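Lab meeting prep.
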Amino acid sequence: MTATRVCGSLTALALAFAAFAAPNSWPSDDARIVFGGFAGDGTAIYVTTPDGAWFEALTEPGAGGSYPAWSHDGRTIAFSSGVGGVSRLYLMDADGRHVRRISDGPRDFGPTWSPRDDAIVFTSSRKGNGGIYMADLDGGRQTLITGVDTVAQEPSWRPAGDAIAYSESSHTTGFSDIHIMDSEGLHLAQLTDRRPHDLSADWHPRGKAIAFVSWGEDDRSADIYTMKPDGADERRLTTHPARDTDPRWSPDGTQILFTSARDGDDGLFIMDLDGRIVRKVTDEQ
């Protein structure tokens, strides 16, 4: 992994450019979106505007960059990087400089920041099954906070308050549901319990709702839903036959950024809370 920063707008992106969102893709300044993308030479971390007016690569294409997440102050990006089945977590400045590694597992991914930006929770397979770990950015400690027999992934830390939404798989059915725990790993509640797989929870910026993805019975289609923090008032936002995944709230909580293959390759879209598409972010410029 190098700290090379690829500058300039990416006006020559191939038509096969594919993008995927990640936790905290859209910082509070509402001016930038960070995402992982594939443009022919492998994955890298890119930044764009909500209207897709320009694109800039922050990491080297082909280095395996994915799952970027802004800190709440907008100054730092956490992300996963690695090739050959190995990935670790890194931090970099918002301009792509000063890259530094913060984890040492064989497959660490999906970082989400604590409300104070002093810790990061992430998924790791270092003990076999997926588990959720916390990296203390001050002390450098990496601690498993889910049970050793719990298969858990994709944490999302509530912007204010001690609550982490995540996906947990059942040992009996293999299906996944959305759960909530505190930062010590104490299980607080199970929020979904009906579909084969409910994944990719993301907290509303004021903590009053959770967006998530539910996969269909055929395991090939996926749609985006929202619900209240107690699991009530569940609402389905998308009904497209293609996969709609990776929902991420806008800073004001009125729109949702998501990944969809509805135009062929995965791209980034923004929709209102009634499911109406506002725009495709990753159109060719």
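Slide two material, second protein:
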Amino acid sequence: MIQWVLEKGDCMRFVVVDRQDANSKRVSQQIKEKCIAHNWILDERKPDILFSVGGDGTLLRAIHSYVDRLDSMSFVGIHTGTLGFLTDYTQEELDTFLLDVFKQEPEIEEFPMLEITLPQDKQTYYAFNDARIASLDRTISLDVYIDGELFERTTGSGICISTQYGSTAINRALSGAVVDPGLQVLQLTEIMPVTHKHHHSLGNPYIMKEDRKILVEGKDLHLAYLSYDHLNIELEKIHQIQIGTSTKKVRFARYRTYSYLKRLKNLY
């Protein structure tokens, strides 16, 4: 157990974020009232644990809201939406959830973020699922270097770099491989690549070890957007993008065993 997990009897500092629809707000309010009645402290600035009420999008936004405090807190998802791959409980299991949280000692499961650096403007961004460098209205050519060696020049709509957990998100829609948990890897998938005698690239997803360093550059980079999870920025004056595994990790508090295979089956 990592050292910041509180001992029994200590006052847990918590925060609840929700999807802002009426149903999620109702569930969120119930959780707040029950936690406060249990002598927990509502603390939006420095929570020990965050309860996300909604779907995967709600949890992703919560992760980004607390990206500077990831080493000091954990996350739990309660599903009230249409897709809850990241969540452990449904709203129908609210009583079970509260009983587990108040009585059980959680196991902490850690997942590293992606670290995306733009050397030209000295900015660093983080992604839990993936980073995409893409242009949907113009064909672009990108040079992809791995550990300093030119790997390929891909021509098409761009590329997607995903984490293990992000392998089930946009990467999966691009026919990338779904990666089993416990395998800490990076995955490179091309987005609608153009293939003919003048343009050659791998054309298949490439799964690589997590400590690989990826550099993307090219004269067309300014035509693309950098999208990381649900966020995006323009690349108008950017000439290079560096992507690798971050030391920042998202920590999920697991109060019960929930099969990864069952999570996958919920997707289809």
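Talking points for slide two:
The chain is about 15% helix and 40% strand.
The radius of gyration is 20 Å.
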